[in-house]
Amino acid sequence: MGDIIHALASRIYPLCRSITGQGVRDTIDVLRDHIDIIRNDVPSGTRLFDWIVPQEWIVRNAYIIDPSGRQIAEFKTSNLHLLNYSIPVRRTMPLAELKAHIYTLPTQPDLIPYKTAYYTDAWGFCMSHNELLALKDGDYEVVIDTAKVPGMLHYGEYRHQGWGDKEVLLYAHICHPSLANDNCSGLALLTCLAEWMKSIRTYYSYRFIFAPGTIGSLAWLSANEHCLPNVAHGLVLSCIGDGGNAHYKRSRRHTAIIDRIAACTRCGEDQHPLAIDDFSPFGYDERQFCSPGFDLPVGLLQRSAFGTFPEYHTSADNLDFIRPEHLGSSFRMVVDMLSALEGNWTPLNNSPKGEPHLSRHGLFPTIGGHKDQSLQTAAYLWVLNFADGNHDLLDIAERSNLSFMQIAAAAADLLDARLISNLGFLDRKI
């Protein structure tokens, strides 16, 4: 699965995405090769709460011609070279004037930064700091062939129908250009997850949204206020393809079911616990879903947290930075979280007076006296002790400090051995 996700991320990586424009349309078209995404179009000028959909940005080309006649900072070489949403410019100017419109990273002098000017009329170029230092005095010709015209904002939507109408919201932002971890990784992983989910039956319905950051989630919220009571759980995915330890940021509710499940989820071959961060009004589109007027139970799932890794918002966030093994691990992590939503049930101990004789049921070694109990044995004992009809598997995972999947596997063994009964979903705590 990691190879499949990486291949899809590689297809959409070269596209120049923004909050509007052809890059978003092209990206949705690529994702449609996997799932039947519905593209929603919102006209420029549409009011979305306190925001207004801007004019659509069209970009054809951009570059600078230095005094020797050489083209530099070419958009066609890297779409990060152009300040995203730049207005059109065709002028000749001295280096001192040009420098006011050039963005670099002095502390990372070999990298191109990613910069935007979505809601203002500005222009500029991004380049490595070393390249800026090498520019010689003289006249430079600036060519930015762009336009802002009345058009559309687009977001993609795909819905997997479950047994019930209660929904899990899964979101990835689609507005960043050639940045692999942020967020080709999230777009590709969610698309492959939706495709995989076609073959399974679920209790919940799942709504996958691929939208431009902030303005896109607000567009979806504005159009779907009537169905928000059905949103039971949610995840925003970004920066999910690097090798960092997984991070989860709690929803504004702090103790939503999805928040509790994240704390009982493990990642990678070493089954490392997720780093759990408290909610803050900084980040990605969970800010909009968790704004006080909506207060939806939506958390943020990442590998390395945004802004904490040196490749973030630079040209180093490329296809070499995300790896199939990390994408595959992240896929399994998300599946585990959704499996916990789907598979949480309440066990009842059929022999609550004392512990059952586990070895008689094939659940404990016949030779005893070991110094350490296995995690599997520990999980059996935790489930049996709290299978009083008042605790579900998530409760037991939290109390035991074991992963939900360990507790669920132990409960399945105990159920097969007829040591516990399944009381079902007595209370889904939605």
Explained architecture:
The protein has twelve helices and 20 strands. The chain has 430 residues and is an alpha/beta fold. Strands 1-10-12-11-13-18-14-17 form an eight-stranded mixed β-sheet, sandwiched between helices. Strands 5-4-9-6 form a four-stranded antiparallel β-sheet. Helix 1 packs across helix 5 and helix 1 (2-12) packs across helix 9 (324-343). The longest helix is centred in the C-terminal third of the chain and has 20 residues, at 324-343. It starts with a helix and ends in an 8-residue tail after the last strand. The model has no long low-confidence stretch (mean pLDDT 95).
What key attributes describe this structure?
20 strands; eight-stranded mixed sheet; 22% strand; alpha/beta; 430 residues; four-stranded antiparallel sheet
Question: Major sheet, described briefly?
Answer: 8 strands, mixed
Structural class: alpha/beta
The number of helical runs is: 12
Taking all Cα atoms into account, the compactness measure Rg is 25 Å
Q: What are the low-pLDDT stretches, counting only 5+ consecutive residues below 50?
A: none
Strand arrangement across the biggest beta sheet:
1-10-12-11-13-18-14-17
Q: How many angstroms does the end-to-end distance come to?
A: 31 Å
Share of β-strand residues? 15-25%
Helix content: 25-40%
Total count of strands: 20
The average pLDDT is: 95
Based on Cα principal axes, name the global outline: elongated
